[in-house]
Amino acid sequence: MSPAVAQSANLDYHERLKRLLPGGVHYNFNMPWEEVPIHFVDGRKSRLFDMDGNEYLDLYARFGAMILGHGNEEYLDALQEAIGRVLCVSHCDFDAEPLELMNAHIPSAEMIRFGLSGTEILQTALRLARAYTGRNRFLRFENHYHGNADNIMGGRVTDPKLPVPVDFRGDYKGTAGRATGVMADQSYMLPWNDTERLEAFFAEHGEELSSVLTEPVCVNGGSIEPAPGYLERLRALCTEHGVVLIFDEMITGVRMGVGGAQKKLGVTPDLTTFGKAIGGGGVPVSALVGKREIMALLESKKVIHAGTYNGYPLGSAAVKATFSILSRDDEAVLHAMHRRAAELQSILVREAQIAGLPLIVQGPPGVASFHCCETPLENPGQYDFDLMSKDIIVATALQRHGVLISSISRIYPNAQLSDEDLEFFQIRARKALGEAKQSIDEIF
Amino acid sequence: MDEENIKAILTKLIAAELALAPGEIDEQASFMKLGVSSVQALKIINRLRKELDVDINPVALFEFKTIEDISAYLAEEFD
């Protein structure tokens, strides 16, 4: 299908980069195909502009990090002030306010440490849980994603009686070079949202576990919400067996509310990891928050958490600005963003109906995904290759028509999403969905 | 169907999708090197499904990334 947008400058630039940059990108998963990234030159509010002069509605938001929208003045002013004062010291007077803001809003944030990336801070959380419990193994769930470290990425269970994750052919989160046995020796993996399996597992293995790690809403598996009572039961089982419950709120944190998914859902974990949007989208910051008695292991220095840029001034200023903007007036900015996101999702469903394409949107506004099917997914295991393929076709068509979606079909709104953006979306979605329907009919 | 036949069909489908002549397709190059996009890969694998009248697990794409590798895998499946 011919591109709906010009891209000659972009293609030339991509070729130039590929000479030095593997694949022309700074990250990759194990996909067999080559996607040519779009190189942007300018961003304003919800829109991006590429090297060929094309305009896009940015619902990709750099994997959800860009929550404030491009060129948010209050945010940029805060960053400018920090840059102008002190850039590179280990400790500065920017720390207290962001920590106090997070403590005030996030139920599990009795104490807080900052890091840089999600992958890194998550490993610190696992280490802390192992030290606190004196146990080695952790439990994670199918199709959740917790960073690209060897011990936690991809894999599947081949023997349900001993549910340890192992490498398998065709795992797009699988990687060559993984340290031998690193998943099987450290972890278990279960299907998510299955209370019966969870209870049976805890009865047999509960005393072996240091921690259980879960996204509170499984955004990576298709924006699937927890079944009623599931997280509450998980919380109770962890307490009963002395296991540290860790929420990975890398995506849900701030996007669902400044208190994270945990506040919305009313379940408080022992530790939580944050990243992406807590820094507002312009600078990298991750955070590990948790109960005082567990975090005390960092205070006593029994557990190491180190990093040259941890708590760097610009990052702390960014967190302060982000929480200030989003929490003001009872989270008015976030409520408005969620309302517009819900409208945008309704437009997408309506336009799909017009095109004759089965399509639903599921998940809380702010972290929702669309799927080319009739009914919402109930567990991440239902997100099979055929459905994923159809979603890829729609996402690709939307991109061809100037609407950027986050992989695979996530819709990440930002605080500056406007009525004009919704109009832009409606026009582009109509064209894109017509084309996608044609492709899907041709392929399936 | 033997490996050579499968290879010829696959090469023809990829060439058609990339608007190239079959002779221009390197059978040892990965889909990625050939510049196949996600949607093109899905189209190719599904057309191959229809043409060979066989259910091909799309996951094969992730493991067997060249025309030669996919053809060898499918020939083995036919046996």
Description of the structure:
The complex is a heterodimer of chains A (444) and B (79). Chain A has 444 residues and is of the alpha/beta class. Chain A folds into 2 domains: 8-70 and 330-443, Aspartate Aminotransferase, domain 1 (Alpha-Beta Complex), CATH 3.90.1150.10; 73-326, 3-Layer(aba) Sandwich (Aspartate Aminotransferase, domain 2). Chain A is 41% helix and 14% strand. In chain A, the strands form 4 sheets. Chain A has a 7-stranded mixed beta sheet with strand order 4-12-11-10-9-5-8, with helices on both faces. In chain A, a hairpin with a 4-residue loop joins strand 2 and strand 3 (55-59). In chain A, helix 2 runs antiparallel to helix 11, helix 6 (195-205) packs parallel to helix 7 (230-241) and helix 12 (385-400) crosses helix 13. With 79 residues, chain B is mostly helical. Chain B has a single domain (3-78), classed as ACP-like (Non-ribosomal Peptide Synthetase Peptidyl Carrier Protein, Chain A). Chain B has helices spanning 3-18, 31-34, 38-52, 60-63, 67-78. In chain B, helix 1 (3-18) crosses helix 5 (67-78). In chain B, 30% of the residues are buried. Chain A binds chain B through residues 1, 23, 30-35, 169-172, 385-386, 389, 392-393, 396, 439, 442-444, and chain B through 30-33, 35-43, 46, 57-63, 65.
